[in-house]
Specification:
By secondary structure, the chain is α/β, with parallel strands linked by helices. It has helices spanning 30-50, 64-77, 106-115, 142-163, 180-189, 195-200; strands at 3-9, 57-61, 86-90, 173-178, 201-202, 208-213, 220-223, 227-228.
Amino acid sequence: MIARIALIRHGAYEQLKNVPSALQPFPLTEEGEQEVRQQARTFGEWLTRNGLRLDPQVDSSTLLRAWQTAMIYIEELREHFDREPQVVSFPTLCERSVGAVANLPVEEIERVLALDPRFSTPPENWKSDSDYCLPFDGAESLLQAGQRVADHIQAWRSQHSIFEGNHEGDGLVKLLVGHGASIRHGAFHLNVIQFCDIKRLSMFYGHPIVLEFSNDQPIKKGFGEWKQRQTHDVPD
C-alpha cells in the first residue's frame, strides 16, 4: 500500500517588503488566489488520470494565507474528496518563527541586536542560514522549523501505517498546506532532498509536490516539481 501526501506552498500574499515572512498575517493577493485555483485544477486532472481520491481532512498552518489556499483547494477539488472536506489548522505547519521580533523589518531586527550588549552580530545572510536562531523568545532556526513539519508528516505516516489494510482512508491522498522554507527543511529531515538542495530549490506558489511512502522503500516523488531558485525570487 502506498501512502501519498501532497505538500503545497500557500499562494502569493500581501507580504511586507524586507520583513521575514514568518508569522505575517496578511491574505492572498487576487493574483495569488487565481494561481492557486489553476494549480488545484491541474492537480485535479492528475488525480482523475490516476484514479486517486483525497483525504477529507486538509492539514494547514494556522496562518491566513495557508488557510485560504487550503479552502481554494477544497472549492476546486470538492468532487475528488472521499467525504465532506474540512480544513484543520496546526501551528506545527507554520513558517520559521522569529519570536518576539515578528513582523519587524530586517534592518530593525539588526538594529535591536546591535543595541543589546548580550547579543553578538548575526552571520551575514542570517535570514536564510539554516542553523541560525535569533536570540529572542520564541525564535527558532529554519532546521528546527523543518523538524516540526517533518514530525507532523511522520505522525500522519505512523497513523496511516497502524490502520493500513483495514481503514476506510487507505489509498487517499493527504493535502498539507504550509510554507516554502519550513517544507523544504522538513523534506531534508525526511531525506527527500539533500542539505545543499535547501538553498538551490524553492516551491511554486500553490503547486503540490506529492511524496509517496511505501514500506521499507525510500520516499518517492509522485507528482510536481521543485522550483530552481532564482536570485530575484520572493523570499519564503
